[in-house]
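A further point concerns the way the authors explain their paired sequence and structure data. An entry of this sort, consisting of the sequence and the corresponding backbone structure tokens, reads as follows:
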Amino acid sequence: MNTVLLLIVGLIIGIVVISMGGGGGAIYLGLLASVFKIAPLSAAATSLVTSLPSVIIGSWGYYRQKKINFRLGNQMLLSAIPAVVIGALLAPYIPNHIYRWVIGIILIILGLRIVIQKNQQSSVKKHTLLMASMYGILSGLMVGIAGLSGGGPVLAGLLIMGLDMFQAVATSSYVLVGLSVIGAGMHLTGGQVDWQLGLPLMIGAAVGALIAPLLVKKVSSTSHSGAVKWVMALLLVLMGINTIR
């Protein structure tokens, strides 16, 4: 029953987060750290490895629809990679209680960010590489230190730089492929992946990632994702609070 439940949860997470340009690292991390109470480093490693197949599949789906902005995506990746490495090297030296506080606070901030972010295109059309680099660094630190996928600042930055929702989601998924590969590799050296929990989530999320690009294509011009964002925001905040407790 637990395996079936994890498959279903992974499927739902895969559809939702890939539809929103994320990798699901925050959701997986919240489940593993707050619900299953596994060690922080193990939760970080498991969340990144779990999210990797789904972001690859989702990104490929967006690539086939020619919606990825490689200019901004590559700039974000170039800036984020050093930040991932630095964050992952520092993570093993952070005490467990501080680590849990860091994870919890980041989860809460991500949830609040989803609530306050408006679904609007910015009038800023400059697509400056400097702005892309700044958001890339922030995302890389989130991946390296906390084992999150880093999709929050990437997606927000792309929207601020003027991309429409479909392009922002597609480009964010592309960036997260590189970040997840590097983050998973770095965290595997310091944290043990819990395959019993991670594998069913991974399989379910991979199936969900096949569905997500098609779903985004149909609803990109509507506001149907608003309710989903509120649910995700609430879950992230609750998981963050539970992780700190």
Observations:
- The mean pLDDT is 75.
- Residues 34 and 243 are 5 Å apart (CA to CA).
- The radius of gyration is 16 Å.
- The chain is about 80% helix and 0% strand.
